Amino acid sequence: TDAASEKFIITDVLPTLKGKTIITITHNNNYLYANDFILLLKDGNIVAYGKYDDLIKSNTAFKKFVEYEN
Fold it and tell me: Which residue has the higher pLDDT, 1 or 55?
């Protein structure tokens, strides 16, 4: 299932990739917090970028995305 795959990625895969550059493309925000840096695209344009904690506090577009997906 998607939930099992996400859990596997977060708990087993990501820890082994520390120090590596990984590009994750998703429409699901369940594990965005696990990323060091986030780009939010809308209609092919970057509308937000930064760290999860900073974006959730200060970026309206990102906050709407997170709230919509939950």
Answer: 55
User: For residue 41, what are the β-bridge partners?
Assistant: 46
Q: Does residue 7 register a pLDDT over 70?
A: yes
Question: Taking the model in full, what pTM does it have?
Answer: 0.71
CA–CA separation, 66 vs 38, rounded Å? 12
pLDDT, residue 45, reads 94
Selection from 11, 47, 2 nearest residue 29 by Cα: 2
Which two three-digit tokens encode residue 27? 């429409």
Mean pLDDT value of segment 37-43: 91
Q: Nearest 5 degrees, angle CA 24-CA 65-CA 37?
A: 40
Spatial separation of the C-alpha atoms in residues 47 and 67, rounded to whole Å: 16
Amino acid at 23: I
Please provide the size of the chain in residues: 70
